[in-house]
Every structure is written in structure tokens, then in C-alpha cells.
Design a protein that fits this description.
By secondary structure, the protein is of the alpha+beta class. The protein has six helices and three strands, in the order ααααβββαα. The chain starts with a helix and ends in an 8-residue tail after the last helix. Pfam families: Ribosomal_S5.
Length: 146
């Protein structure tokens, strides 16, 4: 009778009892599939730098564009984590020590989710460097048409 019960069980493969299926592991080879038109232009190397994007005031809606250009040089720092009742608020600043700076805030029920979301928002917030920001602020704005 014990032999019959063993025959009904699934065989355990090299992946353990799950037969090699993934269960919540991190993706090592994350491939970026662009969603926006700007993302496609960046991936096809039609746009060579972040300065070209900020020169034409194009909105960056994918944080992977920032990762594509700045990559490993981008450092993030969690400035503060505040807890209010059942929510956590994370404050994050990012920079690459070459003029690209970004910061943002996000509120979430879990600390890890708040930090991860804040890093993504900080990448999207102000990716243009200080020189183009100074040029944009120094240029005169047209009068408001009535």
C-alpha cells in the first residue's frame, strides 16, 4: 500500500518540488521592451544622450531610458522613511555625480514597495542635467496671450 501512494506523487526534478518552475525569484537577465515611441528611439540608438531628450523637452515616461543612459553610474540614497499609521512614506534622491539629479516621495503600505516606487519616480522626475536646466531657466518666456 505504501508503494501505491508513492506512485501517485509527482517526480521531483532538478528545480526541486516545483519541477524547475520559477517562484518569485529575481530576473537576472532583464530585457527592456520599450513601450513608448521615445523608448523605441533610444533602444534603436537614434537618440544618443539625455541632453538630446531634454533639449526638445520630450517627456520621459519609462525609467528604463534613464537606466539605459546612466546605468551603473546612477546612485540612489534613501533620505528618510516616515511611518504614519499603516503607511510608509519614503524620500529618495538619485544622482550620478555628473550633473544628473532627481528626487521624489512615495507612500505605500510596505517599506520595500515605497522605496522601489520612489526610486522609479526619482529617475523620472528630473533627469536633465544642470546645464540644460540653467539654459531653460535663463531663456525669456513669451507673454501670456489673452
Amino acid at each position: 500500500m505504501a508503494d501505491d501512494a508513492g506512485a501517485l506523487r509527482r517526480p521531483r526534478g532538478p528545480g526541486g518540488p516545483w519541477n524547475g518552475r520559477a517562484h518569485g525569484g529575481k530576473a537576472k537577465d532583464k530585457v527592456w521592451l520599450p513601450v513608448t515611441k521615445l523608448g523605441c528611439l533610444v533602444k534603436d540608438m537614434k537618440i544618443k544622450s539625455l541632453e538630446e531628450i531634454s533639449l526638445f523637452s520630450l517627456p520621459i515616461k519609462e525609467y528604463d531610458i534613464i537606466d539605459f543612459f546612466l546605468g551603473a553610474s546612477l546612485k540612489d540614497e534613501v533620505l528618510k522613511i516616515a511611518a504614519a499609521q499603516t503607511r510608509f512614506k519614503a524620500f529618495v534622491a538619485i544622482r550620478d555625480y555628473n550633473g544628473h539629479v532627481g528626487s521624489d516621495v512615495k507612500c505605500s503600505k510596505a517599506v520595500a514597495t515605497a522605496i522601489r516606487g520612489t526610486i522609479i519616480l526619482a529617475k523620472l522626475s528630473s533627469p536633465c542635467d544642470e546645464r540644460t536646466r540653467k539654459i531653460r531657466l535663463a531663456s525669456p518666456t513669451p507673454p501670456i496671450a489673452r
